[in-house]
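Two entries, shown back to back:
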Amino acid sequence: MTAEPWVSVDQIAEHLGVTRDSIYRWIDRKALPAHRVGRLWKFKVSEVDDWVRVGGADEETNPTDKSASRI
């Protein structure tokens, strides 16, 4: 079994088809699963894919805002 590699902001932005700015904004506001390694952010693609599947990137929802209504 091979360990899943860590990827950079550029790689995860390309994987999701969004800008680097969106990635940084989602880390800050939407709890995008990211890990700080020194000054760099690193990601596991499987964690990010799971986050997207459960609606983490939805514009209407904010996992850190407990008052948000989810329908």
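entry 2 starts here
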Amino acid sequence: MAAQWQEMRFGATTARVRIFDGGARTSTMPVVLYLAGGAFQQAEQRQGDLPVARRLAERGAFVMEADYAGSATNVFPEAMERMFDVLAGLNGCRKKFGGARSPLLIAGEEAGGNIAAGVALKARDQMPGELSGQVLLSPMIDPMMVSGSIRRADEIGMMGRWSDGWSRYLRAACGLFHPYAAPCRCTRLSQVAPALIMTADDDPLRDETLGYADRLLAAGTPVTRHVLPAGSGWAGLYSHDEGPWLDTVADAFSAFVHELKH
């Protein structure tokens, strides 16, 4: 599978993307816009592999990773708005990458999970019924960073990085209170696309991840939750290291897509 960066046009927006494609195109294969993590810190385009995106493609999805984190756009609302434009563009040409019956999903890990959740909310508001699902892997969605589990962030060297990342992303003072910037603060979560939400018992973002899942469920949004046990290697999500957790994510994704189709 080739995974080289290229520029593509989506309406009035040009974005750098790279494609993970297993090659077996079908008329119902899921089309996924994938957003990597990185704590909103990336100033340069990341060159390393993205294990989750590649594994989802190996399981039969068409996965497009979009670079939201350029030095000029890695702030709210620009990064989120650009990714919404990419999603809308994918929606308009999904036959090119999958088929007319392909479910359209947005997925993201850590900071990318924040933007994915924000884009899913905006999709609910501006392109209702078009987004089939959202996949949030330890989404970084609470800028207050006051949960019980976040205290473990220092153990993996992430507390300062996440704090600095929030400061970078929320340069606009109003961003802290905008539901697209901090989805955990959104008061209207009904009719959002069904969600697959994953974390682990030893994940510093566990509490805010599960708190968001609970609020989506309370609003009537279908949610599938998976909490991996401590010691499963979930920290590899942040370092892009492979491990048994990766197959767990891929299995959960396949089951989630199956449910969406049926």
